[in-house]
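ESCALATION

Customer reports they have been waiting on this structure for their group meeting. Please prioritize. Original submission:
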Amino acid sequence: MPTSAAGHALVTGHTVYACVMGSRAFGLATDASDTDRRGIYLAPTPLFWRFEKPPTHVEGPREEEFSWELERFCELALRANPNILECLHSPLVEYADATGRELLALRGAFLSREVHRTFTRYATGQFKKLEADVRQHGAPRWKHAMHLLRLLHSVRDLLRTGVLTPDVGEAREDLLAVRRGEVPWPEVERRTAALAEQAAAAESRSPLPPEPDRRRVEDFLFRTRRASALRCAETGAYEEVV
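Update from on-call: job pushed to the front of the queue and completed.
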């Protein structure tokens, strides 16, 4: 995991977008919740002209902070990565410069019916881990069970409406009851199956396009990289760009 001083300098000096994610963004925070920060940095274009390329992601420099380089972030978003897409739709944006604001305006280009495959694949993996917990320990990790249901709620509603809303809204109390272990595991299983069925039914009627708009995203990246190169040329900052 890149945590070098140069990586941290990219985050502190070249972040274009930063937000809070996790339970606070989902409307599920408690007094014990951490503050999970996520961000996107734009590595200056001349860094890509060297043999050693800039890192695609950086952990830190603050606790519970993780950032992606813009191109890597866009690649993952085009693949409908659940964590990445939710990051772009966080209700708790802490910073966005001109590039970040353009990315936010572009976030609909990343959404497609592919979310059904990626979100449910991730949910299936989590469900298998919870089943293993039940077999080994007699109970699942309830926090993980809560987030599994939250994710399925999210993708179902996204497929139905075409809008990704991380905050769980009125489902908060029901989900927190799962986290506290107040909902029996068989009921969690039932809810999981019901939400998965509802998401599958919503896919065929979804207002989302079959695929993301890759061309719009590539155009954005091209213009952003070119502008970065021109800024470095104007200032002569080709050696110490970080």
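Sent to customer with the following note: The mean pLDDT is 94.
Escalation resolved.
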